[in-house]
Amino acid sequence: MDKQHENTDVLKCSNCGFVREILESRCPECGSLNSKLDDMLAREEAEREHKSLKGKVKIIWQAPDRKAELLHQLSLYKQTLPDNAMMVLVVIFVFIFALVISVM
Length: 104
Ligand SMILES: [Zn+2]
Hints:
Layout: H1 3-11, H2 35-51, H3 53-62, H4 66-80, H5 83-103
Helix pairs in contact: 2-3, 3-4, 4-5
The structure holds zinc ion (ZN).
Residues 13, 15-16, 18, 27, 29-30, 32 line the site of zinc ion.
């Protein structure tokens, strides 16, 4: 997707079409909320939670097969992190998983 075009879309009021120079959720021209910007912020928030450790634990917790999901999440981390950070995460995940097993 063309990033320049996408940015212009976000800056353009979805109600009156007024294009502003900075990102703000309310249009200075007609006062309507920018639904596109709100959508974007909501999506960003969801993505941030998804990427956080808390989000990961939530995904694993809600997965039908927790062990498989845990291994899947670990393999995803392996692609994005250096080896030493990976080791720390393995220890954390094993610890959390041991806790989950012990309360079941
Ligand atoms: Zn407007």
